[in-house]
């Protein structure tokens, strides 16, 4: 691939974004859609600037609750994944339970969390946690459970204990799975926080969108949407970068 | 090295994994310390099961296994092992892969930090003898299949085990690389005289490398022939094109043919 192609490849996503914004702006203007139904791109940008202060405050609320829930999810997901993945028995015992739990729409937990913890940051953090720990558990457990039996034999006849096998082989081996799951988990965590904020909070982007929507200020609602997706994208890219740095050996084919 | 006391001793050993019958049956044999033995037989005859019993990864359902004068009750603690797939860890360099056993085997594991420089020296020496000098810092996936297998053999030997188990280690290699690695293994063995149990499909491989070849029957695996290979050592590859060697391989081949058609 020559330099020109590379440059084009890097610019392509930005061009796509610009194209989408242009289509949005042009079609709203041509069709003369009223702003309280579907605001134009320029009206949304206007709202972003006008309400920069409140948007910033609510974004910060959403960001930190998401990150708190995500951190909790990583800690619990890692621990649970490690335990389940390192024992065949526990793997078989817990897997159906986990799948069943994951099938429950997490928004159904919010009313329960509100009863327990009241309105505010705590339900948002916990919803983010509940929604994001599952992929981490599954990935870490799978990484550990799919250890090659030959490798295990090699180590066992050296006198390795179970914990040696896990630390020397199982854990490093499951790292690519772990980092891949972080990318999914962080975007899910945003979903959890915002869902909780729309029902049970007076802070955060979810709340902002809810209250702006009830006042028919659709430009502000769309501004909220854009801020959430921007935050989620930045976090995703951050973890994608981390994944590449930490587990380059697992992505050797893509160089 | 007294020939009278066997290093590995199987006394009427059978193993059944489940109710479907014995995987191997009524095996009695003894292996001297420093002996190179090979097991050949049709596929599914329990050659790999024999290895699992010998290393204590499986307990026999009948009979007893002794290694170095003690009954085998669980996995051995200081045994080298290599398989058809090299099974190197992709996140470790070749050198670090070879060092892995020293991080696990007693007494080296507790000395690993302190004596690391010395251990690295051992690993480099060993890698040099198998022709991997200059590849120490490469990752396994940057090596060819033959080179990975060389590294795998180094990993099996770095902690200077007295017993080396090889389960079709050259099975996935091309003919030329395979013969090259026969010679590598022969030289390592000539120099260190560890005890080797080699499981293979390749009769030429068995005859070229081993002191004693055991032929196993179809499942349930029994030993139907014990053949001492009295070709003089050190053996050169040229031996394999001479009449005594060819006759020997042919006899073994006929035995296996009889088993398969029986």
UniProtKB/TrEMBL annotation, chain A:
<keyword id="KW-0813">Transport</keyword>
<feature type="transmembrane region" description="Helical">
    <location>
        <begin position="12"/>
        <end position="31"/>
    </location>
</feature>
<dbReference type="InterPro" id="IPR035906">
    <property type="entry name" value="MetI-like_sf"/>
</dbReference>
<feature type="domain" description="ABC transmembrane type-1">
    <location>
        <begin position="59"/>
        <end position="239"/>
    </location>
</feature>
<feature type="transmembrane region" description="Helical">
    <location>
        <begin position="97"/>
        <end position="119"/>
    </location>
</feature>
<feature type="transmembrane region" description="Helical">
    <location>
        <begin position="63"/>
        <end position="85"/>
    </location>
</feature>
<feature type="transmembrane region" description="Helical">
    <location>
        <begin position="177"/>
        <end position="196"/>
    </location>
</feature>
<protein>
    <submittedName>
        <fullName>ABC transporter permease</fullName>
    </submittedName>
</protein>
<comment type="similarity">
    <text>Belongs to the binding-protein-dependent transport system permease family.</text>
</comment>
<dbReference type="InterPro" id="IPR000515">
    <property type="entry name" value="MetI-like"/>
</dbReference>
<dbReference type="Pfam" id="PF00528">
    <property type="entry name" value="BPD_transp_1"/>
</dbReference>
<feature type="transmembrane region" description="Helical">
    <location>
        <begin position="216"/>
        <end position="242"/>
    </location>
</feature>
<keyword id="KW-1003">Cell membrane</keyword>
<keyword id="KW-1133">Transmembrane helix</keyword>
<feature type="transmembrane region" description="Helical">
    <location>
        <begin position="125"/>
        <end position="147"/>
    </location>
</feature>
<keyword id="KW-0472">Membrane</keyword>
<keyword id="KW-0812">Transmembrane</keyword>
Automatic annotation (TrEMBL), chain B:
<keyword id="KW-0067">ATP-binding</keyword>
<feature type="domain" description="ABC transporter">
    <location>
        <begin position="8"/>
        <end position="243"/>
    </location>
</feature>
<keyword id="KW-0813">Transport</keyword>
<dbReference type="Pfam" id="PF00005">
    <property type="entry name" value="ABC_tran"/>
</dbReference>
<comment type="similarity">
    <text>Belongs to the ABC transporter superfamily.</text>
</comment>
<dbReference type="InterPro" id="IPR050166">
    <property type="entry name" value="ABC_transporter_ATP-bind"/>
</dbReference>
<dbReference type="GO" id="GO:0005524">
    <property type="term" value="F:ATP binding"/>
</dbReference>
<keyword id="KW-0547">Nucleotide-binding</keyword>
<protein>
    <submittedName>
        <fullName>ABC transporter ATP-binding protein</fullName>
    </submittedName>
</protein>
<dbReference type="InterPro" id="IPR017871">
    <property type="entry name" value="ABC_transporter-like_CS"/>
</dbReference>
<dbReference type="InterPro" id="IPR027417">
    <property type="entry name" value="P-loop_NTPase"/>
</dbReference>
<dbReference type="InterPro" id="IPR003593">
    <property type="entry name" value="AAA+_ATPase"/>
</dbReference>
<dbReference type="InterPro" id="IPR003439">
    <property type="entry name" value="ABC_transporter-like_ATP-bd"/>
</dbReference>
């Amino acid at each position: 691939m020559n330099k020109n192609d590379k440059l084009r490849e890097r610019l392509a996503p930005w061009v796509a974004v610009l194209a989408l914004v242009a289509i949005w702006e042009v079609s709203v203007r041509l069709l003369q859609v009223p702003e309280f139904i579907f605001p134009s791109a320029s009206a949304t940008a206007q709202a972003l600037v006008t309400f920069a202060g409140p948007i910033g405050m609510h974004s910060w609320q959403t960001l930190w609750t998401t990150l708190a829930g995500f951190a909790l999810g990583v800690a619990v997901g890692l621990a649970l994944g490690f335990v389940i993945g390192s024992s065949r028995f526990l793997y078989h015992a817990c897997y159906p339970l986990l799948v069943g739990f994951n099938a429950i729409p997490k928004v159904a937990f919010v009313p329960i969390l509100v009863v327990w913890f009241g309105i505010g940051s705590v339900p948002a953090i916990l919803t983010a946690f509940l929604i994001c720990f599952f992929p981490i558990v599954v990935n870490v457990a799978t990484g550990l459970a799919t250890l090659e039996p030959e490798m295990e034999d090699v180590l066992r006849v050296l006198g390795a204990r179970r914990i040696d096998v896990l630390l020397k082989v199982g854990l490093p081996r499951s790292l690519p799975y772990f980092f891949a799951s972080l990318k999914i988990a962080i975007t899910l965590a945003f979903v959890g926080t915002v869902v909780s904020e729309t029902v049970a909070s007076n802070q955060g982007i979810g709340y902002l969108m809810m209250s702006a929507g009830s006042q028919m200020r659709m430009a502000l609602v769309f501004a909220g949407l854009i801020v959430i997706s921007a935050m989620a994208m930045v976090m995703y890219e951050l973890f994608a970068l981390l994944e590449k740095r930490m587990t380059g050996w697992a992505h050797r084919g893509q160089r | 090295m007294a020939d009278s006391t066997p290093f590995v001793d199987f006394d009427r050993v059978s193993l059944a994994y489940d109710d479907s019958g014995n995987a191997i049956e009524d095996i009695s044999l003894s292996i001297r310390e420093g002996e190179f033995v090979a097991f050949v037989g049709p596929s599914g005859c329990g050659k790999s099961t024999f290895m699992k019993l010998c290393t204590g990864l499986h307990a026999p359902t009948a009979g007893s296994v002794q290694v170095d004068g003690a009954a085998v009750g669980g996995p051995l603690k200081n045994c080298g092992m290599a398989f058809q797939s090299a099974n190197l860890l992709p996140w470790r360099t070749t050198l670090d892969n070879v060092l892995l056993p020293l991080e696990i085997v007693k007494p080296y594991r507790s000395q690993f930090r302190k004596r690391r420089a010395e251990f690295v020296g051992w690993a480099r020496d060993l890698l040099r003898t198998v022709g991997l000098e200059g590849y120490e810092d490469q990752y396994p996936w940057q090596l060819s299949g033959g080179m990975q297998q060389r590294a795998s053999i180094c990993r099996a030997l770095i902690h200077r085990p007295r017993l080396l188990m090889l389960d079709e280690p050259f099975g996935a290699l091309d003919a030329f690389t395979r013969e090259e690695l026969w010679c590598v293994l022969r030289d390592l063995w000539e120099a260190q005289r560890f005890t080797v149990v080699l499981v293979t499909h390749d009769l030429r491989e068995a005859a070229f490398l081993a002191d004693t070849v055991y032929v196993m029957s179809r499942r349930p695996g029994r030993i139907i022939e014990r053949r001492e290979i009295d070709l003089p050592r050190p053996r050169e590859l040229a031996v394999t094109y001479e009449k005594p060697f060819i006759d020997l391989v042919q006899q073994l081949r006929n035995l296996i043919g009889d088993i398969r058609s029986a």
